[in-house]
Amino acid sequence: MTVQQLEYLVALDTHRQFVLAAEKCHVTQPTLSMQLQKLEEELGVLLFDRNTKGVRPTAVGAKVVQQARQVLREVQQLRDVVQLEKNELVGELRLGIIPTLAPYLVPLFLVELVQRYPQLQVQVEELQSAQIMQRLKDNQLDVGLLVTPLDDRQLHEVPVLEEPFLGYISQDHSLYGRTTISPQDMGEPGLWLLQQGHCFRHQVLNICAPAPAHTNRPFTYESGSIETLKELVRHNHGYTLVPELSVLQELDNPMVKRFSAPEPVREVSLVVHQGFVRLPLLHTLRDSILRKVPERLWAGKAGQKIRWR
């Protein structure tokens, strides 16, 4: 049994296609198939069911894959320990970030990060919170950038930002004339929401008291994009809530309304597996972000944290 065989095993479980798994491992499909067959022969069990509908791990195969992921994580930790001793920021950084953060935060720090550390290979993927959490546990991501707290003992959180929720209100809505708004105002009709699965949606509904009322619209629309919600408000009746990073360039827009104190905020953290050892990389990433956002958004400022779980 070799580390390479375990890497092939995990790749096939991840992608469920021999051709794609081989491509990700930078080998030919026959090579990957042969090595997995050797592993099965050594263990004396069938690890994958292979049929016309795809590739799936057997019951025992799923247990072997789970253990293989843990072994590969520990192998990577050995390599990381060596790099730490050399005081080098090199290698791969697989970063997962939620869609309501990515378009506003990634452009601020990514280019500078890779310019300062050219030996660091950064891969960024937009994923929903539950996906990031699972991929951190499966060793498919190194770092997640998402909303916390998560209350998960397998994961370690490093708070970075406390980002206020702001109202984004149409000129002909009854809330437009307010200087500030409150959670009690969120029962007003006309609230646009993100679609199911986004932690931001859950937080908005946790702010609202009472729950959003039904409207007389002849249609319903739940978006997957903060920018789409803003456009709906600009061109239609109604209102929505947005994170402050999404309106940094238009804070003087009268459509943007702050909440009265204490402002509801979402805590944004860098999240890693508890076994993560590249702490200097984590601190570097945190510092890169903080240099690019207003200090009032840094974690530790006054605000009422809104949970999403």
Structure in words:
InterPro entries: LysR_HTH_N (IPR000847), LysR_subst-bd (IPR005119), WH-like_DNA-bd_sf (IPR036388), WH_DNA-bd_sf (IPR036390). GO terms for molecular function: DNA binding; DNA-binding transcription factor activity. Residues 1-58 form the HTH lysR-type domain. Keywords: Activator, Coiled coil, DNA-binding, Transcription, Transcription regulation. This is LysR family transcriptional regulator. This protein has 309 residues and is of the alpha/beta class. It has three domains: 3-82, Winged helix-like DNA-binding domain superfamily/Winged helix DNA-binding domain (Arc Repressor Mutant, subunit A, Orthogonal Bundle), CATH 1.10.10.10; 89-160 and 268-298, D-Maltodextrin-Binding Protein, domain 2; 162-264, D-Maltodextrin-Binding Protein, domain 2 (3-Layer(aba) Sandwich), CATH 3.40.190. The chain has nine helices and eleven strands. The chain has helices at residues 3-15, 18-25, 29-43, 59-86, 102-116, 129-137, 199-207, 226-235, 279-290, and strands spanning 48-51, 54-57, 91-97, 120-126, 143-148, 155-169, 180-181, 239-243, 256-259, 264-273, 304-305. Strands 3, 4, 5, 6, 7, 8, 9, 10 and 11 form a nine-stranded mixed beta sheet that branches. Strand 10 (264-273), helix 9 (279-290) and strand 11 form a beta-alpha-beta unit. Helix 1 crosses helix 3 (29-43), helix 1 packs across helix 4 and helix 2 (18-25) crosses helix 3. The longest helix is centred in the N-terminal third of the chain and has 28 residues, at 59-86. The two termini are 41 Å apart. The mean pLDDT is 89.
